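User: I would dearly like some help making sense of a protein record. I have put the entry right below:
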Amino acid sequence: MSIIKELEYEVAQKMEEAGYKVENFVFSPSSRPDLGDYQINDAMSLAKIYQENPHIIAEKIVKKLKTDNRFTNINIAGPGFINITLSDEFLIDSMNKSLKDINNNIDRVSGKKIMMDYGGANIAKTLHVGHLRSANIGEAVKRLARLLGHEVISDVHFGDIGRQSGMVISEIKERYPTLPYFDECYSGNYQEVDFNITPEELGEIYPLASTKAKTDESKLEEVVEITKELENGHKGYNALWNKIKEVSIKDITAVYKRINTEFDLLEGESDCYPYIKETMSIMEKSGLLEESEGAKIINVKTETDDSPMPPLVVIKSNDGTLYATRDLATIHSRMKRFSPDEIWYFADNRQSLYFEQVFRASYLTGLVQKETKLEFFGFGTMTGQDGRPFKTRDGGVMTLKDLIKSIKEETLKRINIDMVEEEKREETAEMIAIAALKYADFLPFRTKDYVFDPIKFTDLEGKTGPYLLYSTVRMKSLLEKVEKEGIKEISFHKLKGTNDRLLALTILKMPMVLKKSLEAKSLNEIAEYLYKLTSIYNSFYAENKVLTEEDEKLKSTWTALTKLTFNINSLLLKTLGIKVPEKM
């Protein structure tokens, strides 16, 4: 239990002693800092329950609170708003507890087992800017959920089957028709076939094959047939596709690693195939599968729907599977193998209707019981200055590799060459570039679109990732200098200025920020909090000469304040998937 949560619990007890019971009491940040640090606004709601004047209720509560030396300047404003100020002694004690163990300032939850589905990269395709938000948001929410006590299993859920597989195989067949994969009479070991393909070739093959399929009807028919045969177990096609998957997955995971995103499971749509028969059996037994123009559908519309809710097509008229078939079988697979309490999906906002259909079908047919939560969390789009999806200069879709490269080139211009050794500049520039990309991604609320400005977001000043990194590196540098002086005792003794106190109060708000971020599955609260905390620290740093301060207790306090702020920045940046360089 965090320091403020414990204090809220004890204040609720005092309110009960005054004769008033409040369920789940929480402090409200003061709208008038000149009157207090926090407000208690419950007198008005209690007045309705107990049929008393709210000001009289407030007076009774204040009388109890004034016996507690953790509070000063307790006053009543308006009809019954109680303002309280935390005493310096309480703040000092709280900061020492947090410095000793940051977990004293984190509210843990009774952990659930949660499966997270994010990433969604397609095999044989190059990761592009459209994949960035899913990876960034999903990874950070995963880390946050684990920080607060949940067990999380993450799955990239590759798009490793479907039309793109037929397209790629068709194009390779056209280029290399004599490969054993296309010889129906081949009886050798496919693993010994001398055929190699690079990620760059795959990145060029798919767009070309897609264009051909759109303009040539016979090519499209071939793609459809290859896709069907692949799904039906064609040995040669499957051997070739497995080789392509191996090359593609290695390349994709390397790019994910560059943006500090890792998955517990590297499974794809095809991994559900062993579960499709059982899944369809369960759905058939539910009696909810209907025939419609040769296809099998489930009607998921309810009487309360006030917008269109089309039926979910589960099996195509030619008995082929669809995304829905495979997603339903994947859900069944996850329930059977992991028994999660909740499954969270992160994808583009435009997929919300589809996931609602799948979730309803899962509950209606009994694939998932009501006590298991299936939730979809959509996100907006990263756009260019023109408000359209971020593109290359020639109008093409920008790959993640190229995006990272362009931001890295921008950050290289800003590195202090007197501070960073030449051999570490490339690595440092990439860390800063990733920080710029990620922090810009987290600033807006998850569902909002945002304009990505490479110049603005790589600036060392303002609300940017590089600004946070630079400030955190400077804190670390100060702490290293203090350590060289041989000062062993670092703790809080007294608060001197406005920023000392403001920093302490801001630090105590961290548990609320983490809680709200996880509830919303959005990192904007943490992004804003980091900027606010860092900005207050920088104001404190500018007005105080920590290293030359002669008052030893004040110097110890200021050093402790630096260390605690550094610890929080490091923890939250790590939670966001942002690495801090040694120097910059």
Remarks:
- The first helix runs from residue 3 to 17.
- The chain has a mean pLDDT of 93.
- The two ends are 37 Å apart (CA to CA).
